[in-house]
Amino acid sequence: MALALPEPRWPERLSPLKVVDDLLRCGICFEYFNIAMIIPQCSHNYCSLCIRKFLSYKTQCPTCRVAVTEPELKNNRLLDDLVKSFNSARQQLFQLVLDSPPVSPPM
Amino acid sequence: MALALPEPRWPERLSPLKVVDDLLRCGICFEYFNIAMIIPQCSHNYCSLCIRKFLSYKTQCPTCRVAVTEPELKNNRLLDDLVKSFNSARQQLFQLVLDSPPVSPPM
Ligand SMILES: [Zn+2]
Ligand SMILES: [Zn+2]
Ligand SMILES: [Zn+2]
Ligand SMILES: [Zn+2]
């Protein structure tokens, strides 16, 4: 089972960052945003491909159901930059935690 | 001098997160976004108050100079959620670093 998980478990000491990680994921595919698009009328965000596929089937936001068409989608580039920086920081911090001696009591 | 700094120095072990921290700050006031607004035509973001003040003086994006008027600004609520979660995580991690023994060689 553990081997099937796409992401490593979060070390307890880094768990405060889990909330940030969750926010940087698309509500359709649950991966980090890949070319994040914002729906300006409701402020929800999805990967470009995920939301375009969804809108070809139903012209509404999958989360709040506000009416939306493809030309209304706008790039939310800061989210792409945040994904890149956060993912890199996460990997470096995971490595540091693995390399550092456990604190007692273990956390 | 040190006392005048509004933010504590980043512990070396947490420095990978500094890049994320920088991305969550407004380019006008350099504080974390406070009610983040996106300019849909260029994807730049600012605090609501900062960009409204700026636009009352000059109707363009302060970063890329694209023409923009106040009604075109849209909320970028995910940035507000990210600021809240990241700031809280940062404080918890700073505390953990202060509480944990230094790694040798010191990092
Ligand atoms: Zn997606
Ligand atoms: Zn929505
Ligand atoms: Zn500002
Ligand atoms: Zn701009």
Number of strands of chain A: 3
Residue ranges of chain A: pLDDT <50 for 5 or more in a row? none
Tell me the fraction of residues in β-strands of chain A, as a range. Answer: 5-15%
Give me the CATH superfamily of chain A: Zinc/RING finger domain, C3HC4 (zinc finger)
Distinct small molecules: zinc ion
- What's the structural domain tally of chain A? 1
Rg of chain A, alpha carbons: 17 Å
Oligomer: homodimer
Overall CATH architecture of chain A: 2-Layer Sandwich
- The side-by-side strand order for the widest beta sheet of chain A comes to 2-1-3
Of all chain pairs, the largest interface belongs to: A-B, 32 and 32 residues
What's the end-to-end separation of chain A, in Å?
Answer: 23 Å
Task: Summarize the biggest pleated sheet of chain A.
Answer: 3 strands, antiparallel
The coarse silhouette of chain A is: elongated
The fold-level CATH name of chain A is Herpes Virus-1
